[in-house]
Amino acid sequence: ERDQLLSDHMGDSFLLTDLAHPDAAADDIAGAGPFDAVVAPDDQGVLAAALAAERLGLAHNPPAAVAATRNKVALRRALRGVVRQPVYQVLEDGTDAGLVAGELGFPVVLKPLSRSGSQGVIRADDGDGARAAASRIRRILAVCGANPSEPLLVERFVPGPEIAVEAVLVDGDLRVLAIFDKPDPLDGPYFEETIYVAPSRLHPEVLDAAEALVSEACAALGLETGPVHAELRIDAGRPVLIEVAARPIGGRCGQALHFGLLGTSLEALLLRAALDRPLAGLRLTEAVGALMLPIPRTGVLEEVRGLEAAARIPNVTGVELSMPIGSRVQALPDGDRYLGFAFAAADDAAEVETALRSVMGTVEVVVA
């Protein structure tokens, strides 16, 4: 029914393809051309987009580079010795997670290789916790239809605040669009993100180092063009790369970003870059932020109270649900989606954070 609605609305502009099979999807896209650019908005589409652009002779990232961003172990191996990143080990199925984690030194974080949205990411503080985390991750993979016997990534936990770098690559040149602070601590055992606020309030020298680190990582991976989203921790004033992806910021958080006097959206800016058009006004003209409404527990979403009151909070620019009432919702670490999003804009980042925290205190989620 959804696909028919899209087809009715978009007509010949609509193409349905299976992104789980990137080569076949790339053939579908290339066969539906001609196109001037192919841009993927999320992890699921980045490899298909790179392959399709390659077939069409358009600007694209090397598919091998994109594939490395989709596999956490491949990413770590590609960046080993190049940038600061967590110390890690690969946990093969049947190997004692407690022993492997103990060799790294506790606390550690265990992760599946290819899931996103913090799904299956669990902190462990001792051997028994590592074994329990590994077992739970494999159950999550089985439920998702992934291979529960696949290797897992075990990393030494990196303390400190977390930031997100939003950028675009133009002929290998990294142009940073925004750096978000994540003011809520992300210390585990699960890593549910809540508030993003830009511009970052960290010291300019720290931010310069973070930009340089992301640029070095992209070069080492071989990424050349298109959106980049990177996650970093700031440990004792030094940035450590947690993740880099060849896509824009996830969920609907990109709606918070508007650039230049005309308020150009992130999507429009990325399309201009893909079409090799001049990029101007890359800096934010005001402080902005997004709140990802968390799912308090797994069950059936019965009601969300306080949405209208939240929308009236000063500096809040929008509040929306992304999951319908009556749907089954999954809390982290089992789920990979957020309940909804709120957006705010103000003269400074502190006002934005205050507004988003007010939304958190106003919205009440009822899950049966």
Task: Explain what this protein looks like in three dimensions.
With 368 residues, this protein is of the alpha+beta class. Helices cover 33% and strands 26% of the residues. The chain contains 11 helices and 17 strands. The protein has helices at residues 2-10, 22-31, 43-56, 63-69, 72-79, 97-104, 127-144, 204-221, 266-274, 307-311, 349-362, and strands spanning 88-91, 108-112, 122-124, 152-156, 162-170, 173-182, 195-198, 226-235, 238-245, 258-259, 264-265, 287-293, 299-305, 316-321, 328-329, 340-346, 364-367. It has a 4-stranded antiparallel beta sheet with strand order 1-4-2-3, with helices on both faces. A 4-stranded antiparallel beta sheet has the order 6-5-8-9. The chain has a 4-stranded antiparallel beta sheet with strand order 7-12-16-14. Strand 5 and strand 6 form a beta hairpin. The radius of gyration is 20 Å and the shape is globular. The two termini are 27 Å apart.
Number of helices: 11
Low-confidence stretches: none
Quaternary structure: single chain
The count of strands amounts to 17
Q: What does the main sheet amount to?
A: 4 strands, antiparallel
Radius of gyration, taken over Cα atoms and rounded to an integer in Å: 20 Å
Strand order of the largest sheet: 1-4-2-3
Distance between the termini: 27 Å
